[in-house]
Amino acid sequence: MYLLCTIAASLITFLFLKWMKIRRLCMDLKRLDGKTVLITGGSSGIGKETAIALAIRGARVIIACRDEEKAEKAVREIKTISHTINVHHMHIDLANMRSIRDFCKTFLQREKRLDILINNAAMPSVLDWTDDSFSMCFGVNHLGHFLLTNLLLGRLKESAPSRVITLTCSAYKYQKLDFQDLNYNLFPFFTYCRSKLANIYFTQELARMTEGKGVTAYCVHPGYVQSSWTCHYSLLFRVVMQVIMFMFFVSCEAGSQTVVHCAVSDDVVPLSGGYFTDCRPAALRPFAKDSGVARKLWEASERLVKPAA
């Protein structure tokens, strides 16, 4: 009897874990020939898998990364898997506003189109600061992509219909923004949550501002993914998280599916400003749909990074 109970419990646990890791696949195989895609942090994880999927569909893919050596290796691998040579990389450091401005200047000189911008790169819960004295999570996850998108918005409009996809996380629900301290950096996990909430407000306000101008915007929660984010932490933490991720988290390829869906599907076009997970729109907490807060954050972000400067 004990043996049967053990076997039954093991089977139930196995099936539960399998169920936890099931994700919808993007079934839309629409080609992207002639389209240019820019992906931040595309040298690994979800970004790299997204790059592969869109390169396979014929897009010209540019991955923007800080680590040149890692980016060059990723480009070679993406080319091999996607059987295309139309994959490139450019240097950017989202923790440095000057680097972002230099990147955009070079990009606009080189590239005549930008059809899909994927704001994928992100910093996990770390207690650190950017070169411009912003908390690392808020500075990279929100302000860096805010500045990048604003500086490239003209090219996105010229290439319309175009799309902006920003990766967020369901952890947004654990915090609200404090406009007296947007640069909050006391508890790293809370800082991360706030940055992910900022991604959602940013997407909503961007959708409002570009309505009728051929640019649509979406934010995506990819699920909890087996990526390399633990590299910022201690060895013990990495070991523990590797076990947890193996048991409960999905692969990077599975995590990229909703990003790819929002990049290629015609079904999402009327849903600009929406929040997506598992290749379909999902509900947000009421406080995350406050258009007044979204607009206030946009104005505050403009004051912080001065995109028009």
Please tell me about this protein's structure.
- With 309 residues, the protein is of the alpha/beta class.
- The chain has one domain: NAD(P)-binding Rossmann-like Domain (Rossmann fold).
- Helices cover 47% and strands 12% of the residues.
- The chain has ten helices and eight strands.
- Strands 3-2-1-4-5-6-7-8 form an eight-stranded mixed β-sheet, with helices on both faces.
- Helix 3 links the parallel strand 2 and strand 3.
- The longest helix has 23 residues.
- About 6% of the residues have low confidence.
- Belongs to the short-chain dehydrogenases/reductases (SDR) family.
- Keywords: Oxidoreductase.
- This is Retinol dehydrogenase 11.
- Pfam families: adh_short.
- One of its GO terms (molecular function) is oxidoreductase activity.
The assigned CATH architecture is 3-Layer(aba) Sandwich
Overall shape: it is globular
What are the secondary-structure elements, in order, as H or E? HEHEHEHEHEHEHHHEEH
Assign the CATH superfamily.
NAD(P)-binding Rossmann-like Domain
Gyration radius over CA: 19 Å
User: What is the share of helical residues?
Assistant: 40-55%
Family: Belongs to the short-chain dehydrogenases/reductases (SDR) family.
InterPro entries: NAD(P)-bd_dom_sf, SDR_fam
Organism: Conger conger
Keywords: Oxidoreductase
